[in-house]
């Protein structure tokens, strides 16, 4: 542990030295330079702060993005071109990151799978880390096809798509890989050799043996738009870019790029035989390209090789796959399986004990697992970070199986081939409850697995007084709720009991806000200088910034005050002229930006920045009463008294002035009283005067449940997620506190535009 801490501090010191050598650009300048570079690199201030201070090891993509942007300045601080991702000057940083990642106790400990939160509420042992030895056949599924050609998991692991052929009938069957039940059928005219889900999981691209690519909506089970035509032969590869909008398709000779929103080509066709493809976040495409019996690493964006030949004199059959971050390429040629470092074009590991020839290789999306399959169907599992074999081979399947798919979290495997059966392996965390388990346990597990929120019985105050805003403590052991008469009540959300602890407000005033210190219990309440002329909330009208050392509050006169936490005096912080009659206030999590809602508009500003850098948002037609920043500070959501909710992307620096909103979220039939992002940022909850709570996917701008969450007998005034995002709490005018158990959310996707 000490070795890692020391190495991380040395690494951070070298990053700081590099920043000094490049003219010491500010965090905001680096973020703006990243946007201006048009490379797709995003550098939130929080990421830069963590990296330069050595608080934690950032992800490889974020680190290399930061290093590339720093190298886009010369020694005099003047801008120069951003170096390409494979520039030799970047390799020492990439190598050091891998060395640090190997020491990092957090990264060495397998991250919990997407069902960890779900199972935490059920009896039984906690999920075990991936070991490769816990896999067993969970389902032997009889398909509609006598040949199953390929399979693919959706990004959240909830759908397994399998392409097959039965006589003259072809199609793609959709399965629930956890329950082992069919959930849909996409009927097509030809057999498909390539499948790929979009990053959001909403679209499935199907490339068939006639050169046609079809896009299917996985929720409606209908084809969206016309087929994409441009290939003369069978489609071998389909892959979505990180933005979910660009689709890349390839046959033996030609590569096409498509805009899935228009169905039109995105650029000219490229020539080459692709064996594997990786779409970078900046829009570039890295490929393992076979030409004249030689395998190269190829940058399809520039059309040039970025390495010397990897393998020469290769046969017709060769398998290849990129890891999710593009850092590794796995190749199988004959009986040899190699892991290549794509940055250097050198072999990182040669996998031993390869069991016979085969061309099937697949990474899990989280990069923790590599699966290989020989021609006679033996599956072996590997740790890509070390090249070590994980447990004995999987041989529970019999028959001509030669196709393989790995779930994104690496805890499910699907095996198919020239047979009418499909086999699904589960690691321990995906085990379906035993039939001997209590019916309630199985019903709860099934509901969560089917992505349904489960309502718990309501909790009520003794007096039945109306409830307003609410907030969880950082450790999740306390839930604080402000009452209409100014008290702050405390519940234990796990035991579902009201606790004797309370925080009384001074007589005749309502509390403005509270803060949670490290021990998880608030130590200070702010109250107005005189009784307010309108109700004030528990958390909405106080915004903490500068690592908790300052607090912005709405004064009794409707103006914003920035106070010093230690003594409540005014801090030296700028508030723009004209910011008055403020009804809602929010601070970005990194503490740099404040947002104040005044009527139908919002003003954003950095109190430490000079005048002229402020931004105004204006698209509502009624008073804005609720507002919240996403955890990464990239999104701001606003809600008004007409029930309209707008999402704004505030991450990209822009000249002073107005900015158009992003997604508009419809649904509430009355005023929106509260908004809250989940700690991970992949869920948004809204509370309304219509008595409902709605859940949204902020990346897709869509509801995540078919129906709103109901039960309150009046307006819902407050909503909050627990720190682990497994519980959603809401408070209402009817004096009840309602909670819902939440299923695992979808994986984060691209920001709305």
Protein described:
This protein is mainly beta and 753 residues long. It folds into 4 domains: 107 residues, no CATH class; 298 residues, YVTN repeat-like/Quinoprotein amine dehydrogenase (Methylamine Dehydrogenase, Chain H); 174 residues, no CATH class; 126 residues, 7 Propeller (Methylamine Dehydrogenase, Chain H). Helices cover 11% and strands 37% of the residues. It contains 8 helices and 58 strands. Strands 6, 7, 8, 9 and 10 form a 5-stranded antiparallel sheet that branches. Strands 11, 12, 13, 14 and 15 form a 5-stranded antiparallel sheet that branches. A hairpin with a 6-residue loop joins strand 34 and strand 35. The protein is globular. 44% of the residues are buried.
Short recap of the structure:
This protein is 11% helix and 37% strand.
The fraction of residues assigned to DSSP E strands is 35-45%
Number of strands: 58
Q: Round the Cα radius of gyration to an integer and report it.
A: 27 Å
Structural class: mainly beta
Helix content bin: 10-25%
Give me the CATH fold name of the largest domain. Methylamine Dehydrogenase, Chain H
Name of the CATH class of the largest domain: Mainly Beta
What is the 3D form? globular
Count of helix runs: 8
Spans of 5+ residues with little confidence (pLDDT < 50)? 106-132, 506-512, 528-540, 746-753
Task: Please give a handful of descriptors for the protein shown.
11% helix; 753 residues; Methylamine Dehydrogenase, Chain H; 5-stranded antiparallel β-sheet; 4 domains; globular; mainly beta; 8 helices; single chain
């Amino acid at each position: 542990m000490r070795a890692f801490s020391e190495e991380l501090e040395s690494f951070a010191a070298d990053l700081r030295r590099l920043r000094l050598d490049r003219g010491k650009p500010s965090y905001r300048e680096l973020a703006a330079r990243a946007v201006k570079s048009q490379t797709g690199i995003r550098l939130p201030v929080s990421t830069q702060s963590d990296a330069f201070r050595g608080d934690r090891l950032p992800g490889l993509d974020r680190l290399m993005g930061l290093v590339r942007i720093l190298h886009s300045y010369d020694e005099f601080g003047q801008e120069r071109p951003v170096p390409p991702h494979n520039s030799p000057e970047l390799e020492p940083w990439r190598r050091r990151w891998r060395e640090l990642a190997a020491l990092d106790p957090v990264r060495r400990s397998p991250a919990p799978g997407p069902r960890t939160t779900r199972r935490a509420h059920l009896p039984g042992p906690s999920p075990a880390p991936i070991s490769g030895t816990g896999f067993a056949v969970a389902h032997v599924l009889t398909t509609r096809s006598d040949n199953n050609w390929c399979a693919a998991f959706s990004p959240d692991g909830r759908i397994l798509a399998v392409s097959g052929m039965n006589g003259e009938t072809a199609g793609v069957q959709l399965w629930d890989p956890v329950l082992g039940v069919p959930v849909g059928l996409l009927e097509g005219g030809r057999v498909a050799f390539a499948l790929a889900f979009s990053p959001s999981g909403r679209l499935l691209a199907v490339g068939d043996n006639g050169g046609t690519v079809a896009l299917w909506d996985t929720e409606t089970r209908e084809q969206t738009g016309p087929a994409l035509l441009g290939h003369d032969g069978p489609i071998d590869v389909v892959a979505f870019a990180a933005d979910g909008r660009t689709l890349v398709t390839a046959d033996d000779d030609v590569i096409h790029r498509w805009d899935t929103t228009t169905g039109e080509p995105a650029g000219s066709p490229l020539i080459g035989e692709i064996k594997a493809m990786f779409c970078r976040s900046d829009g570039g495409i890295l490929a393992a390209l076979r030409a004249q019996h030689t395998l190269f690493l190829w940058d399809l964006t520039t059309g040039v090789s970025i390495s010397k030949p990897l393998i020469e004199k290769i046969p017709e059959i060769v398998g290849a796959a990129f890891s999710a971050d593009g850092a590794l390429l796995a190749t199988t040629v004959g009986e040899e399986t190699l892991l290549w470092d794509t940055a250097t074009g050198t072999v990182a590991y040669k996998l031993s004990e390869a069991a016979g020839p085969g061309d099937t290789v697949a990474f899990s999306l989280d990069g923790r697992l590599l699966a290989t399959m020989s021609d006679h169907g033996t599956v072996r599992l590997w740790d890509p970070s070390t090249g070590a074999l994980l447990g004995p081979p999987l041989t529970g399947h019999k028959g001509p199986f030669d196709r393989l798919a790995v779930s994104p979290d690496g805890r499910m495997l699907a095996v198919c081939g020239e047979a009418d059966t499909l086999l699904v392996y589960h690691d321990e965390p995906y085990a379906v409850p035993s039939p001997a388990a209590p019916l309630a346990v199985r019903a709860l597990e099934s509901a969560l697995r089917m992505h349904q929120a489960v309502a718990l019985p309501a909790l009520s105050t003794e007096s039945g007084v109306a409830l307003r805003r609410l907030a969880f403590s950082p450790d999740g052991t306390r839930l604080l709720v402000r009452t209409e008469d100014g008290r702050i009540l405390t519940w234990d959300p796990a035991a579902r009991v009201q606790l004797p602890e309370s925080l009384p407000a001074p007589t005749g005033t309502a509390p403005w806000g509270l803060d949670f210190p490290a021990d998880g219990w608030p130590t200070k309440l702010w109250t107005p200088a005189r009784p307010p002329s309108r109700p004030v909330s528990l958390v909405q009208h106080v915004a903490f910034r500068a690592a908790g050392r300052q607090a912005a509050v709405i004064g009794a006169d409707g103006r914003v005050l920035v106070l010093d936490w230690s003594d409540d005096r005014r801090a030296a912080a700028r508030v723009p002229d004209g910011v008055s009659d403020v009804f809602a206030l929010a601070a970005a999590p990194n503490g740099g930006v404040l947002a104040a809602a005044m009527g139908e508009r919002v003003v954003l500003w950095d109190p430490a920045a000079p005048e002229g850098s402020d931004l105004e948002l204006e698209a509502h037609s009624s008073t804005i009463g609720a507002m919240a920043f996403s955890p990464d500070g990239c999104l701001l959501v606003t809600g008004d008294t007409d029930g309209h909710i707008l999402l704004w992307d505030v991450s990209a620096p822009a000249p002073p002035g107005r900015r158009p909103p992003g997604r508009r979220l419809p649904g509430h039939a009355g005023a929106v009283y509260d908004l809250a992002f989940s700690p991970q940022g992949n869920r948004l909850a809204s509370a309304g005067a219509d008595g409902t709570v709605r859940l949204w996917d902020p990346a897709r701008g869509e509801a995540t449940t078919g129906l709103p969450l109901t039960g309150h007998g009046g307006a819902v005034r407050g909503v909050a997620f627990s720190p682990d995002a497994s519980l959603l709490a809401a408070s209402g005018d009817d004096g009840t506190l309602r909670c819902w158990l939440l299923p695992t959310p979808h994986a984060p996707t691209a920001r709305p535009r």
